[in-house]
Write a structure and sequence with these properties.
mainly alpha; 2 domains; 196 residues; 6 helices
Length: 196
């Protein structure tokens, strides 16, 4: 198991370097495409023709979303670059999280049922805390609770928040039950882990 984890972490390090190099290359491509779109480079030159035929079709979906949102089509390359960079950061973070979970599962399996119980309680409490955070943030930006990206957080947290809402009054327009639920989840997971 240790050799697998070492190989996984070294592959993750290589992937970080590769994604960073791709982000730099994409930044250069986006800068040139932006220069062509804003006419800083001649629109009749070979570079402009190459970018209009090869790069612009790739950026067209981003451009449509930017224009629908009220942005300028010339900013589409920068939005595409931002999306790729954020996607790369999320991918690296997710793979790092998976690596740490594999490490924890390896350690838990070595400890037997007690270690597996520890991992289970930690994962469930972590998932509920993340669901509460997603639910609160989605209420701030007014995302529909029926959105496919947000629905899971409502499904996981509503059985916890509904009884708390009957007990705890709101403070004006502020619902404090997510904060109370977060604290209760932390306390309960601490109690469950301390009982072992």
């Amino acid at each position: 198991m240790q050799s697998f984890l070492l190989a996984y972490l070294s592959a993750l390090d290589v992937l970080r370097v590769v994604l960073f190099a791709l982000a730099l290359a994409l930044a250069v491509v986006c800068a040139i495409d932006w220069a062509v779109r804003t006419r800083r480079l001649s629109p009749f030159g070979p570079v402009a023709r190459f970018f209009r035929t090869t790069v612009d079709p790739l950026i067209a979906p981003v451009e449509r979303r930017v224009v629908r949102a009220g942005g300028l089509p010339t900013s589409a390359p920068w939005w595409a670059l931002g999306g790729v960079v954020v996607g790369g950061i999320v991918l690296i973070s997710l793979l790092g999280f998976i690596g740490s979970m594999l490490y924890r599962f390896g350690g838990a399996a070595a400890q037997g049922p007690r270690g597996i119980y520890y991992i289970f309680v930690t994962l469930v409490s972590g998932l509920l805390q993340i669901a509460l955070l997603v639910r609160v943030l989605s209420s701030w930006v007014r995302v529909s609770p029926y959105s496919r990206w947000i629905r899971w957080s409502f499904v996981l947290t509503e059985p916890i928040l509904a009884p708390l809402r009957r007990i705890i009054p709101t403070l004006g327009t502020i619902d404090v039950t997510p904060i109370v639920a977060y604290i209760l989840i932390r306390l309960l997971s601490g109690l469950l882990l301390g009982a072992v």
